[in-house]
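Translate structure to sequence.
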């Protein structure tokens, strides 16, 4: 009987606390979503396009131990550079807190400003919607479903949300970043929540196989104590990464990652210590990322303008090589693969037409004659 009463109290207290928190911040306090380690794009839209190719990542964050209704989060993000100075992406966040589910979908855009070749600042903006739903079917039988609190209009409501961020990079070594991923939500005031941090990467051996990256992060929560963490990451051959650190809320951080060309797998484990351990034993995070080659437009390069003599020299060289191949085949049949060499020469003629702006009609005729002769020779050797 005592066990039943204890569990009932826990359920009622949990639901009550969640309801109070939800209503106080209009069901949209999402600051705990952005303390992850393995997916920086989630918290900072300026990270959109920070990789060379299309980068897609799925990660999940959950708690081990503690009460059954502890939060768990599932994230998906995809972003890509659009050109040399801008990027775009999309992120989807699904968070569960007991009977509450929050869905957050946002598009992101980033733009680079280059002060010098080594000093670059990237700014980012995100825009989308957020909705928090109350799943009545998940509530305990001990909760009065007729309670008007459960039908509060702030629940099950779609709100516009936006965020902003910036990243300063020095060469490929230093990053300093700050972001407010939930800057504006609906008609609420500007949030005071933001994430800021820095990291510095350097090689520790002459061959460059081993690298270290110390990093610090600060989380300015509005409805919880401020938090910071310090982490040291070590990488071998850009393939295996190990991380260790400490978060001032009493969590020891450890992580491991494997990079296989276009596939990255990461796992982070946060073990609670001290008083925090009484509430939740540990937190873990798993991430899987894929890199895809970005789509590139087949843009024809601007043709070079050079003297007619430069073009004529190119034509003469190819003509001499054609005649040389014919002579070798007559005197030493089979010494070289004439067909293969002729195909190469034909491609070189095409490159001349693409690379240079040719206005001399006689030179264009000469190239066309060479192409016809080469194609006839290729056809001749095909018949042998």
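Result:
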């Amino acid at each position: 009987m005592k066990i039943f009463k204890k569990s009932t109290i826990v359920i009622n207290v949990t639901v009550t606390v969640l309801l109070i928190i939800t209503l106080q911040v209009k069901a949209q306090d999402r600051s705990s979503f952005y303390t992850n380690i393995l997916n920086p794009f989630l918290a900072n839209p300026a990270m959109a396009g920070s990789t060379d190719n299309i980068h897609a990542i799925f990660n999940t964050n959950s708690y081990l131990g503690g009460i059954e209704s502890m939060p768990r989060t599932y994230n998906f993000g995809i972003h890509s550079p659009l050109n040399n100075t801008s990027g775009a992406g999309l992120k989807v966040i699904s968070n569960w807190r007991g009977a509450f589910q929050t869905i957050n979908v946002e598009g992101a855009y980033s733009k680079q400003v280059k002060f010098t070749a080594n000093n670059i600042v990237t700014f980012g903006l995100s825009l989308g919607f957020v909705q928090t739903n109350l799943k009545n079917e998940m509530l305990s039988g001990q909760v009065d479903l007729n309670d008007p609190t459960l039908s509060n209009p702030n629940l099950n409501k779609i709100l516009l949300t936006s965020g902003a961020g910036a990243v300063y990079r020095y060469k490929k070594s230093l990053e300093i970043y700050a972001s407010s991923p939930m800057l504006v939500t609906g008609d609420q005031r500007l949030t005071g929540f933001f994430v800021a941090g820095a990291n510095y990467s350097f090689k520790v051996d002459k061959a460059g196989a081993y690298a270290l990256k110390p990093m610090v992060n600060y989380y300015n929560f509005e409805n919880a104590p401020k938090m910071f963490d310090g982490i040291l990451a070590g990488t071998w051959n850009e393939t295996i990464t190990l991380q260790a650190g400490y978060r001032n809320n009493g969590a020891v951080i450890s992580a491991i990652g494997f990079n296989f060309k276009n596939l990255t797998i990461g796992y982070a484990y946060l073990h609670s210590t001290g008083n925090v351990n009484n509430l939740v034993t540990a937190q873990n995070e798993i991430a899987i990322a894929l890199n895809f080659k970005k789509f590139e437009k087949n843009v024809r390069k601007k043709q070079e303008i050079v003297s007619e003599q430069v073009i004529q020299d190119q034509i003469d060289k190819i003509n001499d090589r054609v005649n040389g191949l014919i002579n070798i085949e007559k005197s030493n049949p089979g010494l070289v693969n004439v067909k293969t060499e002729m195909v190469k020469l034909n491609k070189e003629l095409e490159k001349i037409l693409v690379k240079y702006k040719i206005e001399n009609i006689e030179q264009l005729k000469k190239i066309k004659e060479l192409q016809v002769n080469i194609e006839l020779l290729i056809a001749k050797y095909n018949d042998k």
